[in-house]
Design brief:
Helix content of chain A: over 70%
Order of helices and strands of chain A: HHHHHHHHH
Mean pLDDT of chain A: 86
Largest interface: A-B, 30 and 29 residues
Largest sheet of chain A: none
Order of helices and strands of chain B: HHHHHHHHH
Low-confidence stretches of chain B: 13-19, 158-164
Strand content of chain A: under 5%
Structural class of chain B: mainly alpha
Distance between the termini of chain B: 25 Å
Oligomer: heterodimer
Radius of gyration of chain B: 20 Å
Largest sheet of chain B: none
Shape of chain B: globular
Mean pLDDT of chain B: 72
Shape of chain A: globular
Distance between the termini of chain A: 21 Å
Low-confidence stretches of chain A: none
Radius of gyration of chain A: 18 Å
Structural class of chain A: mainly alpha
Number of strands of chain B: 0
Number of helices of chain A: 9
Number of domains of chain A: 1
């Protein structure tokens, strides 16, 4: 299974590198959203819980863009049939796609978070960075797992781009909640506070539970 | 059975005139909420059974359970708003974990129908809907746990208040809960019987019309076929 996952992951990343479809769009969308927030909130700098909220909402909507495009190549070019014909474990597709989305989100955040610090964030980012990286990684894992599940669910529907946000956003609310609560003390004015351990634990447990559920359920989405 | 359910549901009305009239909505609101949530989780269980056995009847049960739970959820949100307006002065309050959790769960299940409607192949539709039912059914308790941790507790906690309430209130509440459960089961059976009848009618129509395109006669629908 591991070699299958590695092969699929390599394919995804090569495809993305050559076509440059999802990631640049997600990055540009994040930056555009910061501008929208600047005008919408009518503020030059945000701190604390407002900063946390702006950051997470932006990342969440950028992730929705990525989720929309996740299985499209497979669907349009018969990739599902090809994969089903191969003598490999079907959940390898789930793992590979989730890892792909995770990598995409990490790349997007590499640009989007410094952009946030430049454009909107009040306090300097350097003190908050280690804790923020941990929260980002955990939240990315949650978004990746849930996003892959929802993308798999929505790929066969006719109104794919409409269904994905409708289903993904309620499912991602606990991730958003926990991540925002974790990031709020980090982005507080006057120096970063401590990372709230209980919210980190909730985020981790939610990720784990949905990873298990996705593992159990994903096979059924791939059948013909 | 329907009459028994309604008799039980209305039985509570004469009891407890001493809490102030608006409190009586508690006997409708809370059982509806509990039954709706249990219905959602049951919908998930039926979805899992459908995936395991591939029999259409489990998908039908999953669909009907979720359908009626969503209707009850609308009732919960409406009665909750009325109660909130009467006792707190606002129609909806954001820092209440119960309200927010319930709203999120309701929004999630409201997407069940667009999802079903947009997949045309019936077997695929049932399968995908079952997967959705399982994921959403697992999500319900997690969501409540997560949101509850986030906010303060001014929404009355049912479990703690029933143990400290006088016996008449507890009894009435349990009766209301039993009544609401029976109502839910009855509505489920009603809907399933109605769907059976509709499909029997359509099958007859198809046979009369010869070998025409099935979709042209019945149109697309979100309901599972039998």
């Amino acid at each position: 299974m591991r070699s299958t996952v590695v092969a699929l992951l390599a394919k995804e990343l090569t495809l993305e590198w050559r076509t440059r479809e999802s990631v640049p769009a997600m990055v540009l969308f994040s930056i555009a959203t910061y501008v929208v927030f600047h005008f919408g909130l009518d503020r030059d700098r945000v701190v604390g819980d407002l900063a946390s909220g702006v950051l997470w909402v932006t990342l969440l909507f950028a992730a929705i863009l990525g989720i929309n495009r996740l299985f499209v190549a497979e669907y349009e070019q018969g990739g599902f049939d090809g994969f089903l014909l191969a003598p490999v474990d079907r959940t390898a597709l789930l793992v590979a796609k989730a890892l792909t989305l995770f990598v995409f989100l990490c790349i997007v955040e590499l640009v989007a978070v410094p952009a946030f610090a430049l454009l909107l964030l009040g306090p300097p980012l350097t003190q908050a960075l280690p804790g923020l990286v941990l929260v980002l990684l955990l939240a990315n894992a949650g978004i990746a797992v849930l996003g892959t599940l929802v993308a798999g669910l929505a790929i066969q529907t006719r109104a794919r781009d409409l269904i994905v946000p409708l289903i993904a956003l309620p499912l991602l609310v606990p991730v958003l909640l926990a991540a925002a609560r974790c990031a709020t003390p980090l982005l507080a004015d006057g120096g970063a506070g401590a990372l709230p351990g209980n919210w980190l634990a909730i985020l981790a447990i939610y990720d784990l539970l949905f990873a298990l559920i996705a593992f159990a359920v994903f096979d059924f989405l791939l059948e013909d | 059975m329907l009459t028994i359910a309604f008799a039980l549901v209305f039985f509570y009305a004469p009891n407890d005139a001493d809490q102030g009239f608006i409190f009586k909505i508690f006997y409708v609101h809370v059982p509806m909420a509990i039954v709706a949530l249990v219905g959602f989780v049951a919908g998930g269980v039926f979805g899992a059974l459908h995936l395991r056995s591939r029999e259409a009847k489990w998908d039908m049960r999953s669909y009907v359970t979720i359908h009626i739970s969503v209707i009850l959820a609308v009732g919960v949100l409406v009665t909750g708003s009325i109660w909130a307006r009467a006792s707190w002065g606002h129609w909806f309050v954001w820092d209440e974990p119960m309200l927010v959790s319930f709203l999120i769960v309701f929004l999630l299940y409201a997407t069940y129908w667009p999802l079903r409607f947009s997949i045309e192949d019936k077997e695929k539709q049932s399968r995908y809907a079952s997967v959705f039912a399982i994921v959403a059914g697992a999500f319900v308790p997690l969501n409540f746990a997560a949101v509850r941790m986030a906010e303060s507790f001014t929404h009355p906690q049912t479990a703690t208040t029933t143990t400290s309430a006088p016996a008449s209130v507890t009894l009435t509440f349990l009766v209301a809960l039993a009544g609401m459960t029976l109502l839910f089961v009855t509505l489920c059976k009603y809907e399933m019987a109605s769907k059976h009848a509709t499909f029997r009618l359509r099958a007859l129509r198809r046979r009369l019309a010869g070998s025409d395109d099935e979709l042209a006669l019945t149109g697309r629908s979100a309901a599972p076929q039998l």
